[in-house]
Structures are given as C-alpha cells and as structure tokens.
Amino acid sequence: MNENAQVSRISKGRRTEIRRENERVILDAAEKVFAEAGFGGATMQLIADMAGLPKANLHYYFPTKEALYRQVVRNIFEIWLHAADSFDDAPGPVEGIGRYIEAKMDISRRHPHGSKVWASEVMHGAPVIQDYLETTLRDWTAGRMAVIQRWIDEGKMAPVDPRHLLYMLWAMTQHYADFGHQIETLNHGRPLSDAQWHEATETVKTVILRGIGVI
Amino acid sequence: MNENAQVSRISKGRRTEIRRENERVILDAAEKVFAEAGFGGATMQLIADMAGLPKANLHYYFPTKEALYRQVVRNIFEIWLHAADSFDDAPGPVEGIGRYIEAKMDISRRHPHGSKVWASEVMHGAPVIQDYLETTLRDWTAGRMAVIQRWIDEGKMAPVDPRHLLYMLWAMTQHYADFGHQIETLNHGRPLSDAQWHEATETVKTVILRGIGVI
DNA sequence: CCACAACCTGACCATTCGGTCAACATAATT
DNA sequence: AATTATGTTGACCGAATGGTCAGGTTGTGG
Description:
Two copies of one chain form a homodimer.
Chain A: H1 2-41, H2 44-51, H3 55-61, H4 65-82, H5 85-88, H6 93-110, H7 112-123, H8 130-153, H9 162-178, H10 180-185, H11 194-211
Chain A binds a DNA duplex (30 and 30 nucleotides) through residues 7-8, 11-12, 14-15, 18-19, 22, 43-45, 53-57, 59-60, 63-65.
C-alpha cells in the first residue's frame, strides 16, 4: 500500500508536472491579456500565442474562456486575502495599518496585471465573483472593521469611520497598479524607480497615519 | 446678408436639433454600455438598442465604434478638468483641497459610468487618449502641484509630496465610482444613501486634511 | 513489450460583430 | 412644386472568435 502510493506518486510526477507547468504558463499569459484587453477584448488566440501553445491546448486545460478567466480572478483574490495577515496580530494602528499599506503597495507593484483584472471584474458588476464579494470579502471586511473599531475604542487612534478608512486604503494602494500607465506617463514615460515606489509608500503611510491621529 | 443668416439659422434649426438630440442619446447609451462591458465587450447592437435606434443609424453619426468611444472618453475628460476650478482660487489647502474632494466625490456619484470608462481606458494603456495624458493632463498636474508646493512653502500645510497627494485624491474619490458595485455589495446590496455619501465625503476630507496637517 | 490513459493539435464550424449600401423618408431650398 | 440635402433603415458581408473533434503523440502501469 505504502509502496504503491509511493510508486503512484512518482509515476504520476511527470504528468502532474506537465499539467502544473502548462496551467501556470496559461494562467500567467491569461492574466496579462485579460488585464490589457479586458474580458471581452481578450481572445483565446492571443492568450495561446503569449503562452506559446496552440489554442486547442488551452481548451484542454480550461474548458471555456470564462473558466480560465474565473481562475485568474480567484488567484488574485487569494493573494489579496493573504496580504491582510500583517493587519491582524498588530499591537496598534501604527504597525497594523502601516504594514498593511506596505504589503498592498508591494502587491500593486508585483502583481499589476492581477489588480487590473480584479478592478475590471468589479467595474463590470462582478459577474463572475459576486458570491465571493458577498461571503469572503464581506466577512473579511467585517473582521477588519472590528479591529479598527477596537483601536478607536481603546483611544489608539482618532474616531474615523472604519469602513471608509478601509476603502481609502484599498483605493490608494490599488491606484498605483490600476492607473500605473497614467502614473508612468506623468513620470516622463518611465516606470517608477525603487526610490519612487518607496517615496509613494511613505507618503501614503504618512498622510494616512497622521490622518487617523497616530503621528 | 443678416436676413439670410437669420433665415439660414432658423431653417437649419430643426436639423441641428435632430442631430444634437440623436448624438446625445447615442453618447449616453454608449457611455453606459462601455462602462458596463468595456470597449471589447460592448457591441454596437447593444448601444443601438439602449439608444432606441437602429444600428445603422449609429454609423451615420459616428463612423466607427472607436470614434464613438473616443467621443465618450473626451466628454468625461472635459468634466474632470472643470472640477479643478475649485482648486485654483482658494486661499489655502483647507478650502482648495476640501472643495476639490467634494467636487470629485460629487462627480463620482453623478457620473459613475464616465469614471469607469476612463479607468478602463487608462488600465488598457490609454490607446485612445494617450496624447491627452501627455499634454493636457501633464500640464494640469504640473499646475496643481505648483499650487500645493506654494502652500507648503508658505507653511500652510505639512510638507507632503504634491504629486503623490494628487494621486491619493484621485484614487479615493474615483474609487467610489469605479468600485461602486463592490461598495454597494458591502452595503447590504443597496446603493449609498445621501447620508452615506455625505459621510464618505466627510471621512475622506477629515483624514486627508488632518493628514496634511491643516486640522 | 503491450495496452491504456493522458496529452497534443491542425482543421473545421456555427455564431457574432463591425461596418456597408441601396432604397427610402423627411426636411430645407429655390 | 420641384429639387436638393439630410436623415433613416433592413438586409447583407467579410472577418474574427469561441469552441469542437478526430487522429495523433507521449507517458504510465502491468
């Protein structure tokens, strides 16, 4: 039994590796194309070309364009959720919100495509991930609002509506991904440098932390 | 000559009225459809149905789908530029930035479709209005940054990077339009009420104005 | 080595979309 | 009233797209 399982796992190794690698390549290409062209503007052929695979191969791994899109959106959602860990076990708003801003700015820089796909999905009425909004995101938001409210009650920060504070954090951090092209254009057509990203993060942190009365 | 011009103007009246009315109906429908489906996902047939006109009639007034889209984007851009008037002749950041936030929040509420079309256009690399970004928007930004820098130099507000402060203002105010569906979902599926819009605006104003050290 | 399953892909199809056009209707001009 | 200019529309077309499938290749277990 043990041996069988072992052998089975090893034998399956090659196949699963092929599958995992191809799915990864396809998802990466899809994320980029969906971000740059939107769901309607993206074509399976374009994604296939970018992935270096024949179009029919995409349909082998993902039955429909919508299924592929759905997976891309879900992957982004997962990354977002994990970013909130820094929020939880912080002693106060300075560390909690400060680290959350840093984490989200970092995601905006490293996953600009994903952020755009999410924005596009929500702007179009969230036809694919509406259930996520109503369950996971709603619970997540309620939990973080409670944390902020507790900080307020404990006198650790000024009484700011927790809900709108969260919206402000999302808006500012994601703006650097979603409107990256505009920001780049206003930066003489060049992407933000390391120093400029750091400057942006610090400015956001400073204004927000002072804005909630903890500086 | 005068009479001729007068007669000509009156005679032309009916025709120009028809043209203006139809263009308005088409542009309104197009703004909504482009916002909800993106450029690629929008179809001329859908816009025609929403406008209550046969599809061929759209092509009589706008030669191509792209020309129609271009006009929609330009209209939004105009609205945005006018919103900055409140910025200019303000004695200091409290009035200037405060009023600017109010004006932009108001636009987000009354023109959510336009804001989404703009966001979508920028996210896709601004293929249609890149020249606007490089000329009008760049000049506008430079001008407002100078105003903010002057306020800083005069000791009227804390030294905050003017560029990133502008980005923060754009991000937060437009978020309420672009992510309106998400906000609505997190508000028990209901649109924000008058009171809630007011609360959002006040929260943004409070955090920002305190964040730049003027409260 | 054989048989089975998983993987790959060129060719093909039905549908949809942006755009055209000829014929017609209405308003303006002479 | 006749003519011209402007507005209207159903029918149509070529191109592109999402998706299918039969037949092939490669890996896997016995």
